[in-house]
Design a protein that fits this description.
Layout (H helix, E strand, L loop, with lengths): L3 H5 L16 E5 L13 E8 L1 E2 L11 E2 L5 H17 L6 E9 L7 H15 L7 E6 L6 H10 L3 E7 L3 H6 L6 H12 L5 E8 L6 H12 L5 E6 L16 H17 L3 E2 L4 E3 L13 E4 L4 E4 L2 E4 L6 H12 L6 E7 L2 H13 L5 E2 H8 L3 H4 L2 H7 L3 E4 L2 E4 L1 H5 L1 H4 L6 H8 L3
Parallel strand pairs: 2-5, 2-12, 3-4, 5-6, 6-7, 7-8, 8-9
Antiparallel strand pairs: 1-15, 9-11, 10-11, 13-14, 14-15, 16-18, 17-18
Helix pairs in contact: 3-4, 7-8
């Protein structure tokens, strides 16, 4: 039996990207001249961040603002941002193969505002909604029939809905404004459309939640036959409103994860990562260095070893301040935050992104990219293997069944001391 401290160490931080924005350094003006021609003939993703929300959930530590009625000034800034980036970086021969509207709550925009963003992706970045993969996030309340019809007509492939729980009492704990009736109504409308992928997000570890109530929410989600279900652990985020309002039962939280995982596997879902359960195993055996151009305040761009974004904030007052500054901005390379990955950090990112995914980490691919052996660079893999959390098979390191559940403890093992120090000192 593992001790409670072992379970606590699982739920310390998300490892969806490396390094975290809290490690980024401020720069007066970012020089992109070295990257101008790097993307000729390469594939890239386009991301637009829409920070608007009807209300900020108690667990949220993302960049979002509430109460904004007039969004035209922000969308004009996004257009200026786009125009400048196209001048700074030569994307004339770049193949934009993915397009994401994230937030915030993108569908809070009107149909006309949404359509303008789809036109931007299609006309300015030559994104094909027919052959590319497009994603739009939404909340149940904003998923109106008219907006869903627009998404369907445009050819959006994946719609992701933040449900979190189908029980009113759990939604209240999370400080969610949506009701269960909103959720059922939204999902019924979505199912009438022809989207390729419906994703439903659920949360486990909510104070007062039991195995029975979690399975109930999963069962209710399965009624709508989603192609994907993401099970997210509730974390205590210092910059979220819920931080001081509850204590975590980490042992129970891990039990909830195991029971939720077991139930989904029994229902025919495949586990692709700690959180991602899908009706199919996803490809993408060489993760880690995908490039993304992000527009909007709150998005993050990845240009090879260069990561950059607006200043990372999440508290509402700070988000409002950064939002106002973005709307008034004329030079979108000024007052940014950035991180430049050296060879060591690139190794760490590559290992994290691949090992924590179902397709695993290839020893030969790693050696080809970095001219070194992964076991020598990260000797703790052997200890993790002895603990039964990773395994080596046919020259590739994989998470075991137990290892998937420990992803957010395994991932930080790859973090450099420099990154740890910067995260600890972030103001």
């Amino acid at each position: 039996m593992k001790g409670k401290e072992d379970y606590r160490s699982i739920y310390t931080q998300y490892m969806y990207s490396y390094p975290h924005k809290r490690t980024y350094e401020k720069v007066e003006r970012l020089d992109l001249s070295l990257y101008r021609s790097r993307f000729r003939g390469r594939e890239m993703g386009l991301y637009i961040h829409l920070p608007f929300c009807r209300s900020k959930c108690g667990y949220c530590n993302l960049f979002s603002v509430t109460g904004v009625k007039e969004r035209g000034a922000y969308l004009s800034a996004v257009r200026r941002h786009s125009d400048q980036m196209k001048q700074e970086v030569d994307t004339s021969e770049t193949r934009f193969t993915s397009f994401v509207l994230g937030g915030g709550t993108p569908l809070i925009l009107s149909e006309k505002e949404l359509e303008a963003l789809f036109v931007l992706a299609r006309d300015e970045y030559r994104f094909s909604f027919e052959s590319g993969f497009s994603v739009v996030e939404t909340s149940p309340y904003e998923a109106t029939g008219e907006k869903l019809k627009l998404l369907e007509e445009v050819g959006v492939k994946r719609v992701s809905v933040g449900i979190q729980s189908f029980l009113e009492e759990e939604l209240k704990v999370l400080e969610r404004v949506q009701s269960t009736s909103d959720m059922y109504s939204a999902l019924e409308k979505i199912k009438k459309c022809s989207f390729e992928v419906l994703n439903i997000d659920l949360i486990y570890g909510i104070p007062g939640q039991s195995v029975k109530s979690l399975i109930y929410s999963i069962e209710e989600a399965l009624r709508f036959e989603p192609e994907e279900i993401f099970l997210y652990p509730l974390y205590k985020q210092e910059n979220a409103r819920l931080y001081h309002k509850f204590e975590m039962d980490f042992e129970l939280q891990h039990r909830l994860y195991r029971e939720g995982r077991r139930y989904l596997l029994e229902k025919g879902y495949v586990q692709n990562s700690m959180r991602d359960f899908s009706k199919r195993t996803k490809t993408g055996a060489d993760c880690g260095f995908e490039n993304t151009l992000s527009l909007g305040c709150g998005g993050r761009s990845y240009f090879d070893e260069l990561h950059f974004c607006e200043k990372y904030v999440s508290l509402q007052e700070e988000c409002r301040r950064e939002y106002r500054a973005y709307v008034e901005k004329q030079d979108f390379l000024r007052n940014l935050s950035f991180f430049l990955l050296d060879e060591d950090e690139r190794k760490r990112k590559y290992a994290i992104k691949n090992l924590l995914y179902v397709t695993g980490l290839s020893c030969s691919d790693y050696k080809e990219k970095f001219c070194s052996e992964i076991e020598e660079d990260f000797p703790f893999l052997t200890e993790l293997c002895e603990q039964g959390q990773v395994r080596l098979s046919d020259g590739r390191w994989y998470l075991t069944e137990e290892g998937f559940g420990f992803s957010d403890r395994i991932g930080p093992l790859f973090m450099s001391e420099k990154v740890r120090e910067k995260m600890g000192n972030y103001d």
